[in-house]
Write a structure and sequence with these properties.
single chain, about 280 residues, alpha/beta, Aldehyde Oxidoreductase, domain 3, TIM Barrel, 11 helices, 12 strands, glycosyltransferase, pyridine nucleotide biosynthesis, Quinolinate_PRibosylTase_N_sf
Length: about 280
């Protein structure tokens, strides 16, 4: 069971999307064509195979237009669908259904696309101990929903924002004057509850980091051979996270190196939308 996002978290995002679509005059097409009081029933249907995510946002898009709209879910987020599967049926005032349709499908298709590609990598590494995690490479304003979609696809979340944990990257290291100095400054600055992770791209840098000690190491763009060497060097003293060139084809070999996490940015910033339609029934 996937922990859903509270309505208070997603409502501002959905509301803003509706405001963007309604503009200054509202849905002039539905107002002109559809009689007041007319009611309809629509089926939300998958056109492609995939994994569903975003039903709460989709339902909210209709209900913010008119609370009289009702949705009956035939599947839940995290469900695997095939072409032709009916995900949900929506019933209510026709004008509200047509006004909310595009916003609802935009959320559902986008988030389901993220869940689908996440699931493809999770499946590819199913024989390993590794987990798939997302990054902060998210659409501005949609981070909580996109990271939720990653969880719906079987993945895990990396930090949500800059204040979650310390992640010392290459530019931090360069400006601080080196790995050792960057780590020392971080340890002197943050509290005991804050984790510290550092990005390295060579085994020499990793050795320097481990001499001082960190909670996690981000092994950036290393080959599977280098990753295995890195895992041996760390020897369980820190969480190991692989990053770079991770896709369903390469994921299994990378995971077989023994790393704990596969960090994948494109599952949120470049996932293909899952084609879902809304059909009159």
């Amino acid at each position: 069971m996937i922990a859903t996002l509270p309505r208070i978290v997603i409502e501002p995002t959905v509301r803003n999307a509706l405001i963007e679509d309604l503009g200054l005059a509202g849905d002039i097409t539905s107002a002109a064509v559809i009689p007041v009081g007319h009611r309809s029933r629509l089926a939300m249907v998958s056109r492609n195979p995939g994994v569903i995510a975003g039903l709460d946002a989709a339902e909210l898009a209709f209900q913010l237009i008119d609370p009289a709209v009702g949705m009956v879910r035939h599947m839940e987020d995290g469900s695997v669908v095939k072409p032709g599967d009916v995900i949900a049926t929506i019933e209510g005032p026709s004008r509200a259904l047509l006004t909310g349709e595009r916003t609802a499908l935009n959320f559902l298709g986008h988030l389901s696309g993220i869940a689908t590609v996440t699931a493809s990598i999770v499946s590819a590494i199913s024989g390993s101990k590794a987990s798939v995690v997302c990054t902060r490479k998210t659409t501005p304003g949609l981070r909580s929903l996109e990271k939720y979609a990653v969880r719906a696809g079987g993945g895990m979340n990396h930090r949500f924002a800059l204040n979650d944990a310390v992640l010392i990257k290459d530019n931090h290291i360069a400006i601080a004057g080196g790995i050792a100095e960057a780590i020392r400054r971080a340890k002197a600055s943050v509290g005991h509850m804050v984790k510290i992770e550092i990005e390295v791209d060579t085994l020499d840098q990793l050795q320097d980091a481990m001499q001082i000690g960190v909670d996690a190491v981000l092994l950036d763009n290393m080959t599977p051979v280098q990753l295995r060497q890195a895992v041996d060097l760390v020897a369980g003293r820190a969480i190991t996270e692989a990053s770079g060139n991770i896709n369903p084809t390469t994921a299994a070999e990378i995971a077989a190196s023994g790393v704990d996490l596969l960090s994948v940015g494109w599952i949120t910033h470049s996932a293909q939308v899952l084609d879902i339609g809304l059909d009159y029934i």
